[in-house]
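the two lines:
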Amino acid sequence: MPLLEIRNVTRRFGGLTAIDNVTLSIESGEFFTLLGPSGCGKTTLLRMIAGFDAPDAGSIWLDGEDLANKPPEQRPVHTVFQSYALFPHMSVARNIAFPLQMAGNTADEIEVKVKQALAEVHLEDKGASFPHELSGGQKQRVALARALVNRPRMLLLDEPLGALDAKLREQMEIELISLQRDVGITFIFVTHAQPEALALSHRIAVMRDGRVEQMGTPSRIYGLPANRFVADFIGNCNMLPATVIEAGPHGLRLAVGALGEVAAPAAERARAGQAGVLAIRPEQVHIMAENAAHELKNHFIGRVRDFLYIGDVTTYVVELENGTRVEALLANSAPGRAQFFETDQRVKVAWRHDAGIFLVD
Amino acid sequence: MPAPRAERLTKWLIAGPPLAFLLAFFLLPSLIMALASFRYPGEFGGLAPLAPVQAGEEAGLTFENYALFFGDWVYAQIFAKSLGIAALTTLACLVMAYPLAMLIARSEKKRRDLMVLLVILPFASNFLVRVYAWMIILGPMDLLFSRFAVILGMVYVHLPFMILPLYTNLEKHDPALLDAAQDLGANNWNTFWRVTFPLSLPGIFSGAALVFIPVLGMFAIPEMLGGKDDWMVGNMIKEAFLGTRDWPFGSMLSILLTLAVLAIAGAAALLARRGSTNA
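prediction for all of em together
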């Protein structure tokens, strides 16, 4: 039996459907992420799981029990809020003790558990501090410790890393992963930042306009996006408009614009004559000198229009002969060089016959 | 690092006029009054001269006024009664204002502004007119000229002074804190007493000060609604200056009243600081 089941849940605000008939189930011990742009309904869904909001239709089940009539304080579910929501008039230790006091723990139990919780988030010496004396990362940890201290069945995290700078965020991501593994509690994580989702999750549900567009492991979501929205939202993607020439069991033959024929992996719903896009990731596109030898099936000549040096890799924007622009990634193996190809240089771009994915319109 | 000259000059230019005003019309009169409380009353009111004009005349400085106050229990009793009425009024205002301030603070923005406007609307009509209105209401009910009428009038007049600072405080509370408390297992009762109430203490203290201090010195309401027999400190002071024309005695009462207020305010501030560090 799954830990949490969301069955056909719908939530409307006036004329707006924030959650549109969503069904999903989450297993015990999972790190599950609700990912989507702002306004996709992910926070609404989280608030309904926590009990701050109720569905207009459908039901939410935890451990086989319908949560419909349970107020938030009776749900074995705790939330880490985006703003952390630490109690400003209480010390760190008193903040962490709060859920234990509410659950009726004795003073001795509370002392032991608070100490342990502070150790779990590496804040052993901050118990007497007040929230306003802490840095963003420390507040984040206190919020985590407070939400985990009495071991809820599930932890809900509402964009908890949004307020941290990039370096700290990366560090917190690593800590979150190990914390979740150590305490073994199911995490439901809400974010609009796809790198975060890919790095942290066991499974991701990509949401848009109140619906789940795709659900699966990070590598499936990234590598085999179900539609144009998912392909575009997760990572960078070249979208080449294409028409199916022939759909075989081992692959597709596509006509891509004026470029000619391209081989692509088989796609379930593709039929001959159908229009769509060939979605192909920049790291799948090889860039090489115009006359370089290779064994890749799909290759085209173009001109370097632009390049973007990021440090570890450089992204080249190549304009093909028909005007289509394709992005290609190249790892920077030579130190001190930002680019291997000059702007306006004629180059060849190529990719494997099993790279990319054809997405029906 | 000392501030640049121009910056310091600007500060003085801005702070100077109100500071000078307060020095001239608050601090100086207070000092005059403190001095007057140690003098003899003049024969026809006012103050007796500091140096005797004729032999045997009372002149100079004396502790007689204070001796009079501490020599008769009746004055201390009136002080104690006034403190009691002020405390009761403050408590009644707090109990009535808190739910209303909370309601306003948690309404949507448009309705909030309207409700705040309604709270301050009574100020648009004259204070005395409003108290006379109570005389008309309470008279036929046989409640006029009673302690109840005094406290009712005090609460009625001072309620907005409790509502506004409370509202200003409650309005700033982060609603996520209430969600967090509930999420962590607190019911409404615990959420209120452990989160909302302690966070609103600064609002309670400023509201209490704005009610308690004016009520302590108030003479109009006890006179109009309490009648001749239920005097407060304010009535004694007024009587000393305008009735018996014993200025030194009135000054002494005013000084003691000021000291009492300062002592209470100081104790409250100390308590508030202790409260905020212990929490």
